[in-house]
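Please, structure for the following, as tokens.
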Amino acid sequence: MEDEDAFTKPLGRQAVFYYGVGHMLNDITSACWFTYLLVFLTDIGLPPRDAATVMLSGQIADGFTTIFAGELIDRFGHFKIWHGAGSILVAGSFSSVFGGCLPCKIFCSNSSTLQTVGYSMFAAIFNVGWAATQVSHMSMVNCITLNSTSRVVLASCRNAFTMVANLSLYGVALAVFNSIKPHTLVDVENQQLKKGVHGKGYARISWSHWFRKVLYYQVALVYVLTRLVTNVSQAFLAFYVINDLQMSQSSKALVPAIIYICSFIVSVMLQEFTWTGQRLKAFYSAGGILWIICGAGIFFLPRNMNAFMYIISVFIGIANALMTVTGVSMQSFLVGEDLHGCAFVYGSLSFLDKISCGLALFFLESHGNSSPNPSALGRYSVAGFFSVSRYGLSVVPAVCALVGVAVTYTMNLNTPAPKPAMEPLLLA
């Protein structure tokens, strides 16, 4: 009875803190990946379609790794080993993504094809490590505690430290962008564990168990839509503020920084709530509606009123936090007490997330050539041509948020009643 109480009572702040900082390496590299990869690749001369291919190769590698990692973690456990190995792979490969083209140096050639292959290879390696770290870290939530409110608090703390990691990145970026000579618009045309069972086999929940649940499909759709909102908007933000609004180069760091500061504050505040299924649905819907309003503002915002982008950024940050924290927490409500299949849930949903984001970004960036040239963008007006970056930052996230709110309304999220733990859980 004493062991049961230990896993059903609320977690202490120290355990929550330790869990929250465990994903910061992934967070800071992910922020750099989605915000600046397409900018970097097009800036060094890759055509938009080739830059999109590099992005897509990483997303596909990430997506398939989440499936395999989830299956292996469910079979053998060792969450912390997967987390550590993935983190080492991320740290070792990330510099090569934004570094020089290694195959180009080896073969003494700077052809566009060889650059695309070289960057795609390191993008895939980086995302394999990233996926292993993400799946293991997200799955830990259900093995750390059986308390539903504590699970939401863990997700909220994780999101708060995501904001800290991202703000660190944008702080460095702000210093860099302020110290370099501003580029012309031509330079920026398109942007687009479980420790209790060490290696021992145990009764694993089959995939079909989840496929028979309607809630699995609902949570999967909401999670994928939420990730599309945050990732697609993040990928096109820098292009939008520079090309469409013609703001200063420093805005590429200032606007994202405002978004993440607001997300951090909201994420911290969300940790103080007692969470139920209905409250999750209400807060997610609030975030979705707020994003729809922000999307409309971004879509119609003229260049001569670009200062309003800073105000819109505040509400985007709030909406992102509400949707991300509650969207991820819905997965814990889906898993409930079915701990022996939780890694598959997180892995399969992450697979759908990576593939959908990769395809969406590939499609939008591939159509970059159909957007106006920089000089045309300089003559932009509300009645004129709407660029791909404007659609990517406003219409796509707003539509995804709308569908996400509609799906959330149909969910039946019952707050699980904790049951006795049948075997040791992962202690923080």
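Residues 149 and 275 are 5 Å apart (CA to CA). The mean pLDDT is 79.
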